[in-house]
Amino acid sequence: MSLGPTATDSPFSPPVLDAGMHAVATALREEAAATNERRVLVIAGERAATYDACEAALTDVHGSGITVVSEADLFHAEHLSPRQSSELLGRTREAVVLDAHDAFPPNALGRAVGAVDGGGLLVLLTPPLDEWPDRRDDFDERLVVPPFGLDGVTDHFRHRVVDTLRVHPGIAIVNADSGHVERDGLTEPAPRIQARAPSAPDNHTFPPEAYAACLTGDQVAAVQALEALREPNAAVVVEADRGRGKSSAAGLAAGALASEGADVLVTAPGYRNAAAVFERAAELLDALGALDEWDEDAHEVRSNARGRVWFERPPDATDATADALVVDEAAALPVRLLATYAEGDRPVAYTTTVHGYEGAGRGFSVRFRDHLTESDRDVHEISMVEPIRYAPDDPVETWVFRVLMLDATPAADQLVEDVAVDDVDYAELASETLAADEHLLREAFGLLVAAHYRTEPDDLARLLDAPNLDVRALRHDGHVVAVALLAWEGNLPAETREAMYEGERIRGNMIPDVLTSQLRDPDAGAPQGLRVVRIATHHAVRSRGLGSRLLHEIRAEVTERVDYLSVGFGATPDLLRFWGDNGYRTVHLSTTRNATSGEYSALMVDPLSDAGETLHDRSADWLVRRIRSVLADPLDDCDPDVVAGTLAATDATVPLDCTEREWRVVAAAAFGSGLYDAAPRPFGVVALRALVDGRVDPGTRAARLLVRKPLQAREWDAVAEELGFVSRRECMRTFGDVLQPLVREYGTDAALEEAARYD
């Protein structure tokens, strides 16, 4: 059937349009535009039919406003693969097409929804809905972890998606194979009361035009908070869910500063993510009559007052000179970079998403916020709630928050705050149980989100469907007070272990992979391991022993089935102490920093069987054999408290392979006039043995001195300054004092004879 004219500027020009498809899409778009909300159009069916129906649905949409997220090269519009969907961050589109035939990553769904503007449409192309959960796609392949197969992947997450699509307001469903309209998606909302335009606040210092450009009271408050960027040492944090105008507020502030001649540097994961900052800055400068030039190719807006707003990639922004720095989409950047931006006294603003679609997790909230609060910065914080790009109570936002659990939270404090370690029950939370109990899933997943910095929407699907993951919890009166996410690792066949040894990445086997491919242990993948991927305790009941109780229960449950328990984490002194106190021993400290946390990662093992003991012993022996050379080279900048904590949690014997002459040098330096610089090697041997044996407590100046000088080979002057000694001489004298009890404990007869010379 022919249907009306075809838009000449559309990328879609089929000779015949499906009238029903076009009518459904048109009605959705009209209602979305009238309410400034968004709508979802689900086109379900076999691949070719859904593609044709999508063309019909979007015939009237200008091609420049459409992005297609698909593995297939669909249509003549902007195209991104699901793995490239992060490029949608910070952008607005009239329509986003998400093709779920080849893969359906939850991260891509969240990013696609987040990019749809008010009045816009998310078009979701899926297999037939009744069959979709049972089909396997590329994302399911990513959930497969050896030795498990694809048949072990379950379908709970996609059932969740289908169930919510069929009942949630604002979602139309069309069967592309039959042409049947299952739901029209229309909500027929009541007319909205027109909100009053916000006004400039009292005592503002930015130009009135900056506030006239604001669309909500929240945006006005954010721009006023950003006035602090005039002052040295200021740090402004602007937090909001997507669509609240935080990037636009940052752009207005940047433009106001540039109009006064300031040099404002902007960084973000990519320039396109920060496009709104530059658009608003240019618009404000133009309104002020101060716009000199907007050079989009150079990513720079210049004012006629010699100020400018310009962009640098995140790594390059650390060394760039500017009067102020704006970090847009801060939650998507590594914590280490965020901390680097806070060094010095240059004013800096961080805009960040609270419930992120970007898949960067909660690094900003969980780790960096504490770092910023504890710094000497004058911190200003502002939260934005009222949406700008679409109306409040937008049904699509409500749906995506629900289906991806972006707003999942732990149990309310008052429900658990009186719980003691003996009041809880240990429970297995099977994926079937979690999928069937929304309240339980929300509490367990919310606890993981709140306590960890790398939880992302994809993790919800992993939690529900990955064959290698288990969940254990402590509960009180039905509420989750502590939760652990566990991954089965190892037990790999010989051919898989050989491939790993040759450099092939074997998904989901972190401990065997590192020990095999990096540390050259060809048999590390043979024993059966169980890794603690995440563990979280409700913040209202921390420091009561619940985390340790949970680990104890897990150990007791799996002792007969597992050769070893393990964990890997960004090493901090507190975490090293926690895991060490719970029986885990260090087998590796990474030589590169984690890209997200900015920390070196520690791997620790708790052996449960003879095979586990054997794996631990050879790994720990290899660690103490190589660690001195590693600390003096790639780990020479590692925090000395982390190094000392790592070594204190290592269960191995450090050979005291010093010659008699070397012992005399050490003893002479400890008790008399001997010189460290004459023979540094034996000092490193003694320091390593003392730290591994626990003869010097981590966190003390003595431990830091043993790490910084003989193990990390720092210059005396640098060590003295860092550790607070008044002089190089005092530092060297204290070093000798630290060595004296170690010489008495470990020294040979020759060492003791040398020491006796000075008594």
Structure description:
With 759 residues, the protein is α/β, with parallel strands linked by helices. It has four domains: 19-129 and 166-184, Rossmann fold; 208-384, P-loop containing nucleotide triphosphate hydrolases (Rossmann fold), CATH 3.40.50; 413-636, 3-Layer(aba) Sandwich (Aminopeptidase); 660-756, no CATH class. It is 40% helix and 18% strand. The strands form three sheets. The protein has an eight-stranded mixed β-sheet with strand order 10-11-12-9-13-14-8-15, with helices on both faces. A hairpin with a 4-residue loop joins strand 11 and strand 12. Helix 8 packs across helix 9 (275-287) and helix 23 packs across helix 26. The relative contact order is 0.07.
Q: Could you tell me the mean pLDDT?
A: 91
Number of helices: 29
CATH superfamily of the largest domain: Gcn5-related N-acetyltransferase (GNAT)
CATH architecture annotation name of the largest domain: 3-Layer(aba) Sandwich
Write out the strand line-up for the largest beta sheet, numbering strands in chain order: 10-11-12-9-13-14-8-15
- Strand elements, count: 22
* CATH fold-level label of the largest domain: Aminopeptidase
Structural class call reads: alpha/beta
Descriptive terms for the model:
Aminopeptidase; Rossmann fold; 759 residues; alpha/beta; eight-stranded mixed β-sheet
Write the layout of secondary structure elements.
Layout: H1 19-35, E1 39-44, H2 47-57, E2 66-69, E3 78-80, E4 93-99, H3 106-115, E5 116-126, H4 138-143, H5 156-165, E6 171-175, E7 181-184, H6 208-212, H7 217-225, E8 234-240, H8 246-259, E9 263-267, H9 275-287, E10 291-295, E11 300-303, E12 308-311, H10 314-317, E13 324-327, H11 335-341, E14 348-353, H12 363-374, E15 378-384, H13 395-404, H14 413-416, E16 425-428, H15 431-436, H16 438-451, H17 457-465, E17 469-476, E18 479-490, H18 494-501, H19 510-518, E19 528-537, H20 546-558, E20 564-570, H21 573-581, E21 585-593, E22 600-607, H22 610-631, H23 640-648, H24 660-671, H25 680-693, H26 701-711, H27 716-722, H28 728-746, H29 749-756
Parallel strand pairs: 1-5, 1-6, 2-3, 2-4, 4-5, 8-14, 8-15, 9-12, 9-13, 13-14, 19-20
Antiparallel strand pairs: 6-7, 10-11, 11-12, 16-17, 17-18, 18-19, 20-22, 21-22
Helix pairs in contact: 1-2, 3-13, 7-8, 8-9, 21-23, 23-25, 23-26, 24-28, 24-29, 25-26, 27-28
